[in-house]
Write a structure and sequence with these properties.
The strands form 4 sheets. Strands 4-5-9 form a 3-stranded antiparallel sheet, with helices on one face. It has a 3-stranded antiparallel sheet with strand order 7-6-10, with helices on one face. The protein has a two-stranded antiparallel sheet with strand order 1-2. The termini are far apart. The longest helix has 15 residues. It is an alpha+beta fold and 153 residues long. Helix 1 packs antiparallel against helix 2.
């Protein structure tokens, strides 16, 4: 179900986002959210009854311009920035039951954030499975910082 919703949102954003107008990122995400809420996906059949669910996904989208960056975010996947050895969490992670794209219940819509960009900034978009074989283990800020410093160098 998550895969269907994720593909739908990625496709909707790629069709509707204009890199020359970064504010279209939020509009594309909101339009995908609105359309996904009207869809249902067959999940399983039990004793001849078909169970349908509304598809839902989280979103972390980042656009970097020359001087400014734009984030559109919904759910629990975080975006970090490493700048001059300082690690900063750019998004406020919320549980998908509170904020997501699509879904059956009223959820807080995606949020947009604009921020300054400097040469040498390094960004990390966290998604499910970022810890490899230990998906249940959250990375500490120090582990994230160490990985980003290693990558940046």
């Amino acid at each position: 179900m998550l895969e269907v919703a994720s593909k739908f949102v990625c496709s909707a954003i790629s069709r509707n986002f204009d890199a020359n107008n970064p504010s279209t990122l939020l509009g594309a995400a909101l339009e995908a959210h609105k359309k996904l809420k009207t869809r249902e996906i067959k999940e399983i059949e039990i004793n001849g009854d078909t169970i349908f669910r509304k598809p839902v996904t989280t979103l972390s989208a980042l656009h970097l311009g020359k001087n400014n960056g734009h984030i559109v975010h919904a759910g629990d996947s975080s975006i970090y920035r490493l700048r001059n050895a300082n690690l900063e969490l750019l998004t406020k992670p919320l549980e998908p039951k509170l904020q997501a794209i699509g879904g059956a219940h009223k959820k807080k819509p995606p949020e947009e954030k604009t921020f300054g960009v400097q040469r040498g900034d390094v960004y990390l978009l966290c998604t499910d499975g970022v810890t490899g074989n230990e998906p249940w283990r959250a990375l500490t800020d120090e582990e994230i910082k160490r990985a980003l410093v290693k990558t940046a160098s």
